[in-house]
Amino acid sequence: MPFKNILIPTDFFEGFEVALKHAKELATPGSTTLHILHVIEPSLYPSDMGFGHLSYVDVEKELFASSQVEIDKISEKLDSLNFNIKTSILFGRASDQIIAYSKEHSIDLICITTTGRNSFDRFIFGSTTEKVLRRAECPVLALKMPGESNA
Q1: What CATH number is associated with residue 24?
Q2: What is the pLDDT of residues 130-143, one digit of tens each?
Q3: Per the domain annotation, does 85 fall within a domain?
Q4: Strand order of the sheet with strand 109-113?
């Protein structure tokens, strides 16, 4: 079954490269669209960090701008490989946005790694990959990071 739309969520850490490698192996150059999605999750920001007042709007604008730079780098690398590329940056809970995006864009497959930023984040917030696996309406290829333990 050829995949027309493959979603590869990214947090701009090493797991993305693992997921992208497998997505490219499953994709057909010229006919598959690789959807690269980054989700900026809401965080609590102290109103005064000793550097003056920071508004949520200012912080979100900065996060969006830096995310756009990173996602543009990814897109530029992939342009020469003859895949159709679509990039998106969304705000919200990563698992919710990944699920919603996959439905809205008729995604055939989600390629995602089992470990994101760090174990502490996973402990506090739950695994984004686990939530996507449970709720996605399309197949999910959950990839273990090289050297990742079963613990």
Answers
A1: 3.40.50.620
A2: 899 999 999 999 99
A3: yes
A4: 84-91, 33-40, 5-10, 109-113, 140-143
